[in-house]
């Protein structure tokens, strides 16, 4: 370890407990730590004996910022949690606020949010698989998957105006309805995605190198996963079919037909396979949403949360004042507290919101799945080899923005 | 209140000071001394296998000043429980849950640095999102949002 500059947080592994062991530092700035994370391992030959994981390099005070912004102004901050699937964060946050306000969404908004959440989940899983196989040398698979991801991002850009940080949700609805031709292009991209996913299966599923580096590496039992708070694909890879979309449905998931893919061994290979199967399920769910998408407005007609129309703001004093109050003071959310959790691509994403009745959150805490997964990651590294650190880290899909908040 | 809520409330009768339904989550207000007992019973009798979250709410001017807030999930019952307990600013200590749930390790470190809640018997309360040498607890309400910290040595 470098000794000139002490690390921000001292590690008990700074010196090896056993003189025959070596302490190796990986990160925080390392090509394989996509995201900023530091992993300190004590190795005995090639075997990791103990691991100490440090996060926090991307901390930007999300919760403190949220307490100083109006409810609508917090939305761009939620984009930057899991920036590979910003819409999922947007919707979970908005639902927390809407629950306190007692707002019932319009049917079109519910179905559109479901559609977009699943669409963004495809992009997130694709990114995770792409990054983790690239680190094992699978450049072709990486480029194929990045192509898919870019088609999705360009398409979402057409809808929201941004490739990653969409800020597309509004309290009580969405920023706008779909542009013309968006659903037709969506079907084209889904078919393109399916064609490319077939190639990925062909490249990886029975690839000897890929299997050698992922099969039986970082195995988890369901009990172990639950003890360390793992949710999402990591928990399902152990064989436990726990999915909030199925077990505690929200949005329109109760009316969708889908399976919950699970693994058998809970190893890196199963985590890859569960994510690939979930992409298939998401594609099917997006298509179901397109078929069932009802008409009508996307935003509730509730003057407590929705800005008056611009022509009225310029022509009548009541609307002008209403607009002014909503923008400067924010949406007035009744006092109370609520915990809302959505099945984000990484697992249970929870927002714990406390309101004191004003226009700003009194407290907004995020239960970030990445943070909790990183908290249990050392148990997946210990006992395996140094070369397994990178594939295991990739299979966790730690997103710095979400982990460090 | 659902049947699950009622079973939990009956089983834990006398061990909480208030029970309520909070948007589908069962809220139980307890005293600090009861925490380990209540958590163990929730885990073993109702299958609350997932420790979701621990954080605190700072309410200056109220006694006790802090609420420590826990969330648990029972996959078997499809139920979430929120436990809250008040601790004072003079003695912001609560027992650690690291002996019950592995996941408590990181989350307690975060609550410790952000609010100064001390988790007794947790031997690893190093900073996690912040760094060593950071003074104060940034999520306390009396920590100004624009307060600056001195530059750490390696940034000078």
Give a written overview of the molecule:
The complex is a heterodimer of chains A (405) and B (156). By secondary structure, chain A is mostly helical. Chain A has a single domain (71-300, 333-404), classed as Cytochrome-c3 Hydrogenase, chain B, CATH 1.10.645. In chain A, 47% of the residues lie in helices and 12% in strands. Chain A is built from 17 helices and 8 strands. In chain A, the strands form 3 sheets. Chain A has a 3-stranded antiparallel beta sheet with strand order 1-2-3. The model of chain A has no long low-confidence stretch (mean pLDDT 90). Chain B has a 5-stranded mixed beta sheet with strand order 1-2-5-4-3. A two-stranded parallel ribbon of chain B has the order 6-7. Chain B has 156 residues and is α/β, with parallel strands linked by helices. Chain B has a single domain (3-145), classed as NADH:ubiquinone oxidoreductase Nqo5 subunit (Beta Polymerase, domain 2), CATH 3.30.460.80. The termini of chain B are far apart. The chains are: A mainly alpha (405), B alpha/beta (156). The interface between A and B is large, with 48 and 40 residues.
